[in-house]
Amino acid sequence: MAAAAGVSAITVSRALNTPDLLSKATLRRVLTAVKQLGYVPNLTAGALSSRRSRMVVAIVPTIASPMYAETLQSFTSTLSAAGYNVVLGLGGFDDRNEEQLVTTLLGRQPDGMLLVGAVHSAAARRRLAQAGIPIAEIWGDGSPDGDLQVGFSHVGAGEAVATHLMGRGYERFGIISSDDSRALERLEGFRAALGRRGHDIAFQRLVAPPSTIMEGRRSLDGLLRELPRGGAVFCSSDLLAAGLVIEARVRGLEVPRDLAVCGFGDLEIGRALEPALTTVSVDGAEMGQMAARCLIARLSGDPAPQHITVPVEIIQRATS
């Protein structure tokens, strides 16, 4: 390539790595030769020499959920603007799958990693600690041995929903929840807040993650057998809640007179639903952006906060 451009090998290296050091004319000759020869830089060799891969791994349970998709988009965009590429891994909702992905992707020598939640297997924790790279955890409320954490209390979110529904005058309650650790924490908070006021949960259904609208629709039969009319249901996602509202309307039930519903996530479908869905709002895009900024700061040698709590807000709409 140096011969094609009529320059030295060191000049080619500067053009690819420190182009500001060259004149515009010289840089143009080298880039023209790069294009003509179809040269692709060997990033692995570059990472070995610089000890930086400019790659960050993001391991999430699923991209089927709009909540995670929104977070990933802002996370990726923020890192891309800083010159980093994001490699995505789907760990599902199984700690063993996540552990295997952590091991495999650490072998790619990433500069940093993003994980969802603060609950990981002991083996995954050990490997992450040994890797010596910054680790950002999102969508959880942190753990004592965490590195960079951006999230909120799922127990607190569940408690807030229970307090809100009781404040609206409801006295009979049900819950439809995804059977994953974070959703179960919300269930725990919901149940505890009800118990402090002398209430219990008349109907509970756990569904395999990820949550879907159809699982929400399928939940209505069991709910109607166990929860008297006029009760309120907390769904662990807006998708489940939307399915429940759709099926209730199909069956001729009035929402919220016959059945009140609260979701989680403040997704677009909840805002478009008729009646519009009461829900819990968490800014997933902001969470992804803050996690990316924390990683960038640490990778640049700058301080970054170890724990950031994002706000959780009950959005009162027409279903409760």
From TrEMBL:
Residues 1-50 form the HTH lacI-type domain. Gene3D superfamilies: 3.40.50.2300, lambda repressor-like DNA-binding domains. It comes from the Bacteria. Keywords: DNA-binding, Transcription, Transcription regulation. GO terms for molecular function: DNA binding. InterPro entries: HTH_LacI, LacI/GalR-like_sensor, Lambda_DNA-bd_dom_sf, Peripla_BP_I. This is LacI family DNA-binding transcriptional regulator. The lineage of its organism: Bacteria, Pseudomonadati, Pseudomonadota, Alphaproteobacteria, Acetobacterales.
